[in-house]
Specification:
Elements lengths: L1 H16 L13 H14 L3 H8 L4 H11 L9 H15 L13 E5 L2 E3 L4 E2 L3 E8 L5 E8 L10 E3 L2
Antiparallel strand pairs: 1-4, 2-3, 2-6, 4-5
Length: 162
């Protein structure tokens, strides 16, 4: 339980910062050496500057949650309700609501009857749906799915004609 919560915390940090300190440890080492080095790295992130660096690109409450985890015994029940409450308070501070839609749900759906296959053949019997959504970095992500008709002789992917 405590270990599961700690593992969850590492996932949250990795999602927000993009990496974990022990990701750079060589996988070529023997399993025992690898485990020892990861264990030492996990101990280092609990102290001073290493701790600050570990949480610098993460939500501040994750640092507090690690303190809570460190205070638990192995058999203790983690304070899940308290952690949930902390996230709910953070949601209020950030103006996030439980029923807010995800960025990919806001996407516009554009259907086009005229498509061009990669070899330049025009197909009017296929449909393409382009989904546009903005990601956090404000880059435009485009996900395109195509449905080719049974009459289409080309197995090449189709792109939308603008």
């Amino acid at each position: 339980r405590r270990d599961d919560l700690e593992s969850w915390l590492y996932v949250m940090v990795e999602l927000s910062s993009g990496t974990l300190p022990w990701r750079t440890i060589s996988k070529m080492k023997k399993k025992k050496q690898l485990k020892e080095q990861v264990h030492r790295a996990k101990l280092r992130i609990r102290l001073g500057d290493e701790r600050k660096k570990f949480f610098e690109n993460s939500l501040p409450i994750l640092d507090y949650i690690l303190m809570m985890i460190d205070g638990l015994t192995l058999e203790a029940d983690p304070p899940y309700e308290q952690i949930q409450y902390m996230f709910e308070e953070l949601m209020v501070e950030m103006g996030v609501k439980w029923d807010d839609i995800y960025d990919w749900e806001e996407a516009e759906k554009i259907q086009s009857k005229q498509l061009v296959s990669m070899n330049g053949v025009v197909s009017t019997t296929s449909t393409a749906m382009a989904t546009y959504s903005r990601c956090r970095s404000t880059e435009l992500r485009v996900a395109m799915t195509t449905t080719a008709s049974t009459e289409s002789s080309s197995s090449l992917p189709y792109i939308q004609v603008e």
